[in-house]
Design a protein that fits this description.
17 strands; 26 helices; globular; single chain; alpha+beta
Length: 602
């Protein structure tokens, strides 16, 4: 895992170094800068495979030069295929395999890759730059393009300059979701390349071409029996874990009290010849603590386990760190414990397996229960539901649910709220970039899972994990984000995954082979922290100092009246509006951190 940079803007080497220094934590092992023709390449290396300097980047092969971030897990298979064709290799890295693969197959190499990646390849003969991002959007890719000039980077901060203008549309979307989804960024004229897409910059013609090479497909259910599907899934998960254990540095696994990390760790332990090192954060508040369950998992699986008990009030001290490494406003409060977990993990290993992505494909979140309930509620005619909603107070969550015209409205409400904080409501961005989820399946639960994958997984979960791990120079790998696992899961009938009120049914069935069911079949707490209480207590003074009338009025499209009502009700402990308040609070802190004043927003 690394940080990449490339531009044809004529910056000096000192200027490029200054840009890379802002994200030095992504690759502390080596900084490479190369000027070639009209381009300047930059690379920050976190050495994982082939630690020798021969694999440093930028890497050159004939007329091609690459900067690459990520891991190609099946690179040995591709390498063997290329060797049979007649190619020779000078390193044992996946970087060289990727570059030679592109030299031979061109952009068709993308169909062969299984990994997490963001890369840019310059062809000095055609004067074109070809870039791509992995299917699930695990690795970030930001870019600027205007009038033939371009600049790309793994993070946003190096691309920001004095003329960068805050995007009012991005702020409106953030207020609904708590993050800025691709292809938007918080700044105008800086974009994110969407997952499963490539972009080619033709420097002669001064054109850019964006193409999609992968997407979710309409669901075709398998004819396999449940036992056949379970066995195939188990084999697939074993392979997904195994190829993610290739490393020339120390490797461990995150282990919470949940199903996904337990299954990944159990499989890894069964494959490894050595004890796997595992890591858990424990909380002083039993409502949020899973450490005791994780320790039981560790005892049964046989790992070398480290539990770190922290005080919940330690986390708000990490706020400044979060604002520093998350390039844009980001309101997922679980980023705070994620930062701390990775900081602890770095003391022991450089690569960590994780269970991220299991909930999306195997129906694990609580909102899947809500979708099931709405299927019954929709039987009430819409006109009657509207009438019922008028009888409820504004603070009742059921009011907005009753107003949903369709299942799609309800599904989207799950991810973007009811836009109550906005003066002008719009779902234009969702319609343009994410509405294709509606045509993938007739099942509302599968539709929800698909929007989970396309919207939330990339823009929230993957961003959280990437920034928290890279801020501590840790590489995180999740077998559940293997596109083969995602594609296979979508062919399984819903009741293989969500049965009799049991989420992740088939995963739990596989986990029984490693851990007794009575131990793992407990409610999942996640990485929850007491934001609602903090806002009323420890953070209250700072909250009120930052959320002044002048500041709130300067935020584009924020319905100041509704927000202030919610803030008052929350502080009086009458209604929990912590999600909305936290979003606005983080936005204001981020604006302050980035020296964005009221005039810049008005």
């Amino acid at each position: 895992m690394c940080g990449i940079y490339l531009t044809n803007i004529p910056f000096s080497e000192d200027q490029v170094n200054e840009k890379l220094d802002k994200i030095k934590y992504r690759g502390p092992d080596f900084t490479g800068i190369l000027k070639k023709d009209s381009l300047t390449f930059g690379h920050l290396r976190l050495a994982i495979l082939d630690l020798d300097a021969r694999s440093n980047q930028p890497y050159v092969y004939k007329n091609l030069t690459i900067v690459f971030n990520g891991e190609i897990y099946n690179f040995l298979d591709i390498k063997n295929e290329l060797i049979k064709i007649g190619f020779e290799f000078e390193t044992t890295s996946d970087t060289e395999v990727l570059l030679i693969g592109y030299y031979h197959w061109g952009k068709a190499i993308l169909d062969k890759l299984n990994g997490m990646f963001a890369f840019a390849i310059y062809d000095s003969i055609t004067n074109k730059v070809f870039c791509a991002r992995d299917r699930m959007g695990v690795k970030p890719f930001y870019y600027f393009w205007k009038d033939g000039q371009f600049e790309i980077c793994s993070q946003l901060q190096p691309l920001k300059n004095k003329t960068s203008k805050i995007s009012e549309e991005a702020i409106s979307i953030y207020l609904c979701t708590g993050y800025v989804p691709s292809p938007y960024s918080i700044f105008e004229n800086i974009y994110k390349l969407q997952p499963g897409h490539s972009i080619e910059f033709d420097l002669n013609a001064k054109k850019q071409i964006i193409e999609q090479y992968w997407n979710l497909k309409p669901v075709e259910l398998t004819n396999l029996t449940y036992d056949e599907a379970k066995n195939q899934l188990k084999d697939l998960l074993f392979d997904a874990v195994k190829i993610r254990m290739q490393s020339d540095v120390s490797l461990g696994s995150f282990l919470s009290g949940g199903i996904d990390s337990a299954l990944v760790t159990a499989i890894a332990s069964s494959i490894s010849n050595e004890k796997i090192k595992t890591f858990t954060i424990g909380f002083d508040d039993s409502k949020y603590d899973e450490s005791k369950v994780a320790e039981k998992f560790s005892d049964i699986i046989g790992t070398e386990h480290t539990t770190t008990i922290v005080q919940t009030n330690d986390f708000y001290e990490l706020l400044n760190k979060m604002l520093e490494v998350y390039d844009e406003p980001f309101a997922d409060s679980s980023a705070l414990p994620s930062l701390l977990l990775n900081k602890i993990t770095k003391n022991y290993v450089t690569v960590a397996l994780s269970g991220d992505g299991g909930d999306e494909s195997f129906i694990g979140y609580n909102h899947f229960f809500s979708i099931s309930k709405f299927n019954k509620l929709k039987k009430i005619p819409y006109v009657f539901r509207i009438g019922l909603s008028q009888l409820l107070p504004e603070t009742n969550n059921l009011k907005s649910v009753l107003k949903c015209k369709s299942e799609n409205d309800f599904i989207e409400r799950t991810f973007i709220g009811n836009q109550e904080l906005l003066n002008k409501k719009s779902k234009y961005w969702l319609e343009k970039y994410y509405s294709d989820y509606r045509g993938f399946s007739d099942s509302n639960i599968q539709k929800t899972a698909d929007l989970n994958i396309k919207l939330w997984l990339e823009n929230d979960s993957n961003v959280k994990v990437d920034r928290a791990s890279m801020a501590n120079s840790v590489e995180t790998r999740s077998p559940f984000l293997d596109f083969r696992v995602v594609e296979f899961a979508r062919t399984l009938p819903i009741d293989f995954r969500f049965k009799n009120g049991t989420t992740k049914f088939i995963l739990k069935d596989i986990l029984k082979d490693f851990i007794p069911e009575q131990i793992f079949n407990l409610p999942k707490r996640g990485f929850a922290i007491p934001i609602a209480d903090w806002l009323r207590n420890e953070l209250k003074e700072n909250l009120l100092v930052n959320l002044t009338d002048d500041i709130l009025k300067s935020i584009p499209n924020l319905n100041n009246k509704i927000f202030k009502e919610q803030l008052h009700l929350h502080l009086e402990s009458k209604v929990d509006y912590s999600f909305n308040i936290w979003r606005v609070y983080i936005l204001v802190l981020w604006l302050n951190k980035n020296n964005v004043n009221e005039d810049d927003l008005s």
